[in-house]
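Technical annex, item 7. During the second reporting period the consortium partners agreed on a shared format for inverse folding records so that results from different sites could be compared directly. Each record opens with the tokenized structure and is followed by the designed sequence. A conforming record, contributed by the partner at site C, is shown below for reference.
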């Protein structure tokens, strides 16, 4: 725009005062002042201009309603400011007033600057306008709520703008400064932006053009747009020529900008576009959050303690040679499922730097564009296939490649620098053909980091070269260690640089085996035979096959299974003291055991402890010379176990809580219980709550049940009998059947645990020797010794993803036990015993029990 104007004369100003009136038009002469209070102003019959028009004068307006109807008819036009020609400063203060327009191109508030100083070629107006506790409403296409031009400064405080119509912006800036505080701007209409902050060049004939930058500030304020293509804030240079050095400056302080069907913030041309967000600010785009989409557009965004929300295909977009730099501090970029973080298109550039922040979404870069991500103490969930040029992680940053499904790919066309940070992969762990997330670095790597692997449904398997996680085409100087554990099915996986067939290739793999350790005997004893002589030419050897590693949780599942099956097993003498007398009775038994299981797959060492409490009562008893009884029992028990891998040192713990109910019956040939035949039977049903937790893994919980039946018989005959003492020998045998049922349990890593396979027969055969003094009345003490052979029909086991694991408890065990029964008068009996079992594979178990019975 250009104009040739004469210098302004210095004229005396008059003041127009309107109070409590209803008037048509307020249009005082140039330089006049206006004060309007408690009034209603409309445009009447006028069809052009404004209902209120002030040119180079002061304006005071309070509690007034201004209405205009008609195309191009604005509610208020104000041209004030400081005039360099006459040295007079004009401003406007508007409070508690409402402005309404109905018509196309009818602005609510127009704050203009179109008069130039002929000596400098610069705009004269340096106006300051304050709008407080007021509202602006427009209806019509291109009917902006506010228009701010040139070098005006507008303070919009505690006020509201609402527009309805195509292209009706909440505020249209052509240079100038607009500061919103505790205010709202809302538009409803296609292409109706919240604020169009447009920097421009203005000129006058005979003078070079001057750039007038648009400065926008929002404090405790909000902008929302609801039309197709309506941008929350459209900022930057928009004019012909080169935009060097021209851009818009936007500041948000606890502000919220939301566009439901457009970009949250879009940058136009300009080399110095800046957006600053602070103090909980939120920008939320129905399409992109940030878009720099024009050549010669350079935008820098600095977000501190803020949130950026993208609801379109990509949160950040640069196109057509634009540059977009995002610096985050304690902030977050949030996107929906399947949506991206950034896309650098067509010769553009995006640089993301995050400090103490969180990012989400995949990134893409065109062949002629560049995109870099630098994380400092930050987390990025890439959520899908990504491509970028440079990647940096430091200060405990985390990059998650996956989406919770397997097979996501990230390609870094340049280098990866990592320092004290973690890469997270989703994999379906099996053999080396397994699907996995994958990182391909086409440049070089440097630094040190960790790799965490989540198994998603992988059933485990043997590997040779391994499952490739990272491919490095350049210098592979970065080192990685496995964070936590990688487990699939029964297998433990380990991280290696290089494949088995090409250990120097620099790539990174998971393998379900440890390399066998090569032991040099001369290193331990240099004086050993043959160690001093020069070594002969080595014979070609076939490399030892790496050994698959069983994870310790398998031992804990087995220990839980075994504890459930043993927890409530009682022998007849542990429930009834011999010679208990006639009549009904009740009893209680406390039992405990500690076991060191045999090695599971020659890798796991398992230890367990079990405690239980039984109580029971006879319901029916009969007989004089012989005695029979039936009764019911209840019980509860607990078990704890530890499984440790001797190969890896990893541990797992198991816990079992059980409850049991049952019935029993017993018949004795003699009531004194010393000699003769006895037959005993039980039927029990138990339920268990189980848990297993391995090092670095989540706790797994599952339920199980068991039903068991046992029949026991024995016959005692006299070995020694005299007036003072008696000794008896009692061969005895027990046969039991157990049915064990555990819920099929899927671990959080996807491994299916099937506890079937523990059903079967078991038995015990042995001899018991006991004796007592032949005293009448009082207390009688009866010690005893026992030796038993215990036999299981099969080895208990379970399946992890279909692969059976057995071991820990041998099928054949031998037991010795010693104890004592004490007859405390006619009605009370107490007993206790200690037992010791051992079996193949280093199995050891110690048992102890205490019992008490009373008859009545």
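Designed sequence (site C submission):
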């Amino acid at each position: 725009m250009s104009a040739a104007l004469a210098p302004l004369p210095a004229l005396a100003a008059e003041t127009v005062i309107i109070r409590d009136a209803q008037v048509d038009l307020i249009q005082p002469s140039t330089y006049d002042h206006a004060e309007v209070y408690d009034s209603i102003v409309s445009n009447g019959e006028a069809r052009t201009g404004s209902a209120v028009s002030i040119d180079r004068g002061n304006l005071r307006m309070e509690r007034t309603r201004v209405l205009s109807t008609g195309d191009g008819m604005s509610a208020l036009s104000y041209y004030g400011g400081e005039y360099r020609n006459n040295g007079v400063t004009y401003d406007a203060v508007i409070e508690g007033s409402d402005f309404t327009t109905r018509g196309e191109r009818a602005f609510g508030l127009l704050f203009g600057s179109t008069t130039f100083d002929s000596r400098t070629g610069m705009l004269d107006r340096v106006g300051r306008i304050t709008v407080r506790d007021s509202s602006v409403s427009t209806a019509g296409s291109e009917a902006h709520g506010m228009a701010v031009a040139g070098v005006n400064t507008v303070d919009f405080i505690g006020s509201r703008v609402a527009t309805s119509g195509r292209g009706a912006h909440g505020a249209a800036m052509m240079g100038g400064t607009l500061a919103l505080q505790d205010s709202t701007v809302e538009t409803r209409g296609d292409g109706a932006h919240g604020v169009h902050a447009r920097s421009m060049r203005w000129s006058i004939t005979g003078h070079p053009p001057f750039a007038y930058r648009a400065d926008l500030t929002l404090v405790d304020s909000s902008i929302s747009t609801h039309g197709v293509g309506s941008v929350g804030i459209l900022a930057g240079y928009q004019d012909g020529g080169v935009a060097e050095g021209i851009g818009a400056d936007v500041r948000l302080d606890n502000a919220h900008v939301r566009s439901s069907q457009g970009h949250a913030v879009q940058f136009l041309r300009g080399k110095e576009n800046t957006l600053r967000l602070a103090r909980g600010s939120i920008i939320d785009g129905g399409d992109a959050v940030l878009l720099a989409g024009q050549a010669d557009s350079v935008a820098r965004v600095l977000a501190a303690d803020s949130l950026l929300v993208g609801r379109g295909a990509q949160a950040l977009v640069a196109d057509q040679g634009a540059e977009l730099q995002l610096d985050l501090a304690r902030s977050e970029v949030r996107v929906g499922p399947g949506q991206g973080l950034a896309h650098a298109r067509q010769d553009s550039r995006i640089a993301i730097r995050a400090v103490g922040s969180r990012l989400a979404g995949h990134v893409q870069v065109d062949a002629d564009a560049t995109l870099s991500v630098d994380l400092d103490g930050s987390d990025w969930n890439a959520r899908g296939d990504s491509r970028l040029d440079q990647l940096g992680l430091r200060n405990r940053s985390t990059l998650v490649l996956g989406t919770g499904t397997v097979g996501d790919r990230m390609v870094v066309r340049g280098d990866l620098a990592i320092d004290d940070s973690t890469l997270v992969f989703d994999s379906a762990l099996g053999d080396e053909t397994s699907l996995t997330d994958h990182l391909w670095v086409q440049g070089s790597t440097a630094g040190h980091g960790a790799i965490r692997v989540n198994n998603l449904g992988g059933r485990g398997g043997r590997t040779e070269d391994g499952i490739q996680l990272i491919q490095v085409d350049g210098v592979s100087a970065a080192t990685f260690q496995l964070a936590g554990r990688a487990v699939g099915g029964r297998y433990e996986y380990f991280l290696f640089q290089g494949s088995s067939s090409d250990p120097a290739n620099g790539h990174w793999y998971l393998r379900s085996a440890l390399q066998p350790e090569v032991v040099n005997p001369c290193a331990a004893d240099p004086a050993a035979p043959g160690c001093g002589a020069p070594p002969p030419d080595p014979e070609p050897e076939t490399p030892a096959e790496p050994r698959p590693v069983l994870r310790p949780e398998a031992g804990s599942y087995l220990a839980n299974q075994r504890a459930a099956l043993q927890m409530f097993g009682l022998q007849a003498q542990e429930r009834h003291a011999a010679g208990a007398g006639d009549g009904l009775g009740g009893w209680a038994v406390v039992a405990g055991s500690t076991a060191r299981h045999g090695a599971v797959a020659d890798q796991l060492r398992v230890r367990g402890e079990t405690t239980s409490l039984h109580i029971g009562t006879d319901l029916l008893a009969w007989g004089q010379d012989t005695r029979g009884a039936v009764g019911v029992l209840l019980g509860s028990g607990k078990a704890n176990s530890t499984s440790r891998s001797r190969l890896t040192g990893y541990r797992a713990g198991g816990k079992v809580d059980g409850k049991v109910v049952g019935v029993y019956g017993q018949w004795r040939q003699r009531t004194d219980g010393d000699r003769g035949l006895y037959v005993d039977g039980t039927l029990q049903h138990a339920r268990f709550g189980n848990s297993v937790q391995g090092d670095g893994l989540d706790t797994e919980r599952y339920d199980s049940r068991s039903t068991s039946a046992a029949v026991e018989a024995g016959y005692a005959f006299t070995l020694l009998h005299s007036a003072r003492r008696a000794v008896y020998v009692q061969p005895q045998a027990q046969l039991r059947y157990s049915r064990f049922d555990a819920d099929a349990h899927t671990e959080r890593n996807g491994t299916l645990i099937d506890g079937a396979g523990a059903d079967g027969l078991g038995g015990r055969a042995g001899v018991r020797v006991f004796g007592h003094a032949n005293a009448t009345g009082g207390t009688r003490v009866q010690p005893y010794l026992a030796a038993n052979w215990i036999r299981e029909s099969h080895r208990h086991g379970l399946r992890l993803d279909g692969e059976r694991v057995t071991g820990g408890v041998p099928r054949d065990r031998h037991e010795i036990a010693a104890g004592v029964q004490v007859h405390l008068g006619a009605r009370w009996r107490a007993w206790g015993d200690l037992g010791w079992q051992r079996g193949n594979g280093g199995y050891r178990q110690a048992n102890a029990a205490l019992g008490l019975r009373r008859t009545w």
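Confidence is low (pLDDT under 50) at residues 1-12. The first strand starts at residue 15 and ends at 19. All partners now use this format for quarterly exchanges.
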